[in-house]
Design a protein that fits this description.
Helix content: 40-55%
Mean pLDDT: 96
Bound molecules: adenosine-5'-diphosphate, zinc ion
Number of helices: 9
């Protein structure tokens, strides 16, 4: 099962992608997580990506596409995978489709998590990320047991630099301009599935499971 998660930054793609990956036992591939790991490790890719991410801009397609196309051909992706945060532009979608077509494959579902901009600001302002393992929480909607401390690894939680209000507005603009056109792209292919992302996390998950089938 090959799944793509679409939706604005902060819509809940990562939250749902983790749950789906767990239920269907397929890898969760987040390009944002890949970039953040590269930044943490000080790689060349990380250095390049950071300059764009800090400004709330997309990393150029040429730095993203090959990386994902290589990743989905690894052994653990044989039974499928869930892509979170990729594709984010029409050229990225085309490059994925082309690479898959060469393997005789295609994407099965594009799940579009719909959340209005008003709610997004709230979601991202309250999002907290673990500096150790990258786990995501929310001050109000997904709090940790001990404030400021990761439930999983015990490390400290931070507000991501790009989740600060100025950058959030910028990222929303970039989303509407560059990523939203993917909704029509996948709709034309007949694989788009809309989900109401304003429901609580478990209700959103159940709606997605219904689409994917048990
Ligand atoms: P969010 O989960 O809030 O949408 P991500 O973790 O997916 O954020 O991405 C963080 C940042 O990493 C993006 O704002 C962008 O700069 C960069 N990024 C991630 N995926 C891509 C991609 N497919 N194309 C271009 N840039 C990307
Ligand atoms: P994305 O990957 O789309 O950027 P996340 O999964 O990181 O989004 O979610 C953004 C923030 O909103 C996180 O702090 C997360 O805990 C919270 N969140 C996710 N889904 C919901 C939901 N259905 N209701 C309330 N808060 C949510
Ligand atoms: Zn942690």
């Amino acid at each position: 099962m090959k799944i793509i998660m679409l939706g604005a930054p902060g819509a809940g793609k990562g939250t749902q992608a983790k749950k789906i990956a767990g239920k269907y036992e397929i890898p969760h591939i987040s390009t944002g997580d890949i970039f953040r790991a590269n930044i943490k490790n000080g790689t060349e890719l990380g250095k390049k990506a950071k300059t764009y991410m800090d400004q709330g801009l997309l990393v150029p397609d040429e730095l993203v596409c090959d990386l994902v196309v290589d990743r989905v051909q690894q052994k653990d992706c044989e039974r499928g995978y869930i892509l979170d945060g990729f594709p984010r532009t029409i050229p990225q979608a085309e490059s994925l489709d082309k690479a898959l077509a060469e393997l005789g494959e295609s994407v099965d579902f594009a799940i579009n998590v719909e959340v209005p901009d008003e709610n997004i600001v709230n979601r991202m302002g309250g999002r907290r990320a673990c500096v150790g393992c990258g786990a995501t929480y929310h001050l109000a909607y997904a709090p940790t047991k001990t404030e400021g401390i990761c439930d999983t690894c015990g490390k400290e939680l931070i507000l991501r630099d790009d989740d600060k209000p100025e950058t959030v507005q910028k990222r929303l603009g970039v989303y509407h301009e560059q990523t939203q056109p993917l909704i029509a792209y996948y709709s034309k292919k007949g694989i788009l599935k809309d989900v109401d992302g304003t429901m609580d996390m478990e209700a959103v998950f159940q709606a997605i499971v219904k689409i994917l089938g048990a």
